[in-house]
């Protein structure tokens, strides 16, 4: 269990109070507790570009410190930080005017995820390790609407339960379940379309 997972809500509440009071030691504590997990998330989402990941993590912390008044304490601090991270990643690609890079050997949409998203029988581990398949999945994901991308990343990359996803996305659990169903359907359609296109080449 990571430090960020093991800290209590009462500790987080006190930390937030100290941060709001401008406590410099609290800022350092805040950074040290959450930086590693945020960096790992951002690093994978920006094509494993260390420089971009470092810059975005700094932006996430600055944005969090600047909007602490919005943190109500009804979710974990990391859940709230992760929602800020997703927006920063989306903004990064929007400003770049490009789609997310396919990632090499990243722990995201691979065997488990395609087995969950697809209706057909699961592909074998060997097939799933194919770089071509990984790129196809990332290409399909990048072509989906932002809310579909976000809910799939939170569910299958972050492994978040529906209730926590609802807190991050500001939706009801029932709304998240519906969004997940639509996102999986759209993902399957994209994958099938990409596969047909590759076979026709």
- Going by helix content, strand content and strand pairing, the class is mainly alpha
User: Tell me about the biggest sheet?
Assistant: none
Query: What is the subunit organization of this protein?
Result: single chain
Low-confidence stretches: 1-6, 100-116, 118-129
Q: Please report the total strand number as a whole number.
A: 0
Task: Indicate the overall shape.
Answer: globular
What's the end-to-end separation, in Å?
47 Å
Q: Beta fraction of the residues? A: under 5%
- The average pLDDT value, as a whole number, equals 75
Percentage of residues assigned to helices: over 70%
Q: What's the SSE pattern? A: HHHHHHHHHHH
Query: Any idea what the CATH architecture of the largest domain is?
Result: Orthogonal Bundle
Per CATH, the superfamily of the largest domain is Winged helix-like DNA-binding domain superfamily/Winged helix DNA-binding domain
The CATH topology of the largest domain corresponds to Arc Repressor Mutant, subunit A
In total, the number of domains comes to 2
Our Rg estimate from Cα atoms comes to 18 Å
Helix count from the secondary structure assignment = 11
**Given this structure, which CATH class of the largest domain is correct?**
Mainly Alpha
């Amino acid at each position: 269990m990571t430090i960020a997972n093991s800290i209590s809500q009462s500790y987080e509440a006190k930390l937030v109070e100290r941060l709001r009071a401008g406590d410099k030691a609290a800022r350092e504590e805040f950074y040290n507790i959450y930086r590693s997990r945020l960096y790992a998330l951002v690093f994978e989402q920006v094509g494993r570009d260390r420089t971009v990941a470092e810059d975005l993590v700094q932006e996430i912390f600055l944005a969090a410190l600047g909007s602490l008044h919005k943190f109500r304490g009804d979710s974990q601090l990391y859940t709230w930080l992760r929602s800020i991270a997703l927006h920063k990643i989306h903004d990064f690609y929007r400003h770049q005017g490009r789609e997310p890079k396919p990632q090499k050997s990243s722990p995201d949409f691979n065997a488990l995820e395609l087995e969950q998203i697809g209706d057909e029988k699961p592909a074998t581990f060997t097939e799933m390790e194919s770089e071509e398949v990984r790129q196809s999945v990332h290409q399909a994901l990048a072509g989906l609407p932002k809310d579909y991308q976000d809910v799939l990343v939170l569910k299958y990359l972050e492994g978040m339960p529906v209730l926590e996803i609802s807190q991050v996305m500001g939706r009801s659990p029932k709304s998240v379940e519906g969004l997940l169903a639509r996102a999986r359907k759209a993902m399957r359609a994209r994958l099938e379309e990409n596969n047909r296109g590759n076979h026709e080449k």
